[in-house]
What we know:
- The structure holds two protein chains of two kinds.
- By secondary structure, chain A is mainly β.
- Chain A has strands at 4-6, 9-12, 18-24, 32-37, 44-48, 52-53, 61-66, 69-74, 83-89, 96-97, 101-105.
- Chain A is globular.
- Chain B is mainly beta.
- Chain B has no helices and eleven strands.
Amino acid sequence: DTVLTQSPALAVSPGERVTISCRASESVSTGMHWYQQKPGQQPKLLIYGASNLESGVPARFSGSGSGTDFTLTIDPVEADDTATYFCQQSWNDPHTFGAGTKLELK
Amino acid sequence: QVTLKESGTGILQPSQALSLTCSFSGFSLSTTGICVSWIRQPSGKGLEWLADICWDDGKGYNPSLKNRLSISKDTSNNQAFLKITSVDTADTATYYCARMGSYGYYYVMDAWGQGASVTVSS
């Protein structure tokens, strides 16, 4: 299985820029997607295909990368962005998720 | 507007079978490129893809649970189903269904249900 590795947690101040990384154990081309999950809620798609912004998602969110290294950037961070962010790949079978990065605001 | 809602057995005993239903609206499982996936999440932990079923009746299963999973659909009634046999406490989780669409070279889970909580306990 393709293992996706994310840093466990980050803490930033509102207005700052934050980057969340995801590294794949093998190439997933651009088949990498990012989700936001707030406590008690279902995941919400933010970015698909590594860099495409899902409709309705604020332009503060952006994604980049290909192959094995990917980044989700939030700039500027707002208080409402407190959540856990998951990367997920659908290039290789089975589809796999990263363990999630918990973003906290200072 | 795309909506999905999971329903199923809330509390089970070990060795029983879990049956889940995903009822959806705003899309059809007969549309080319559309699938429904099942994903689960133990409390406070990460997400695990379980299975998916597509417009052409193609099915995919997570190899780690493949022998215990069975996915099916009722296209006319806009429902998808997942059955997990021989459950144990490790199957305690929130179970989500999601619409998965073809975006060219890959599939994307672009809409999720609110989740159904399942507890396995003796």
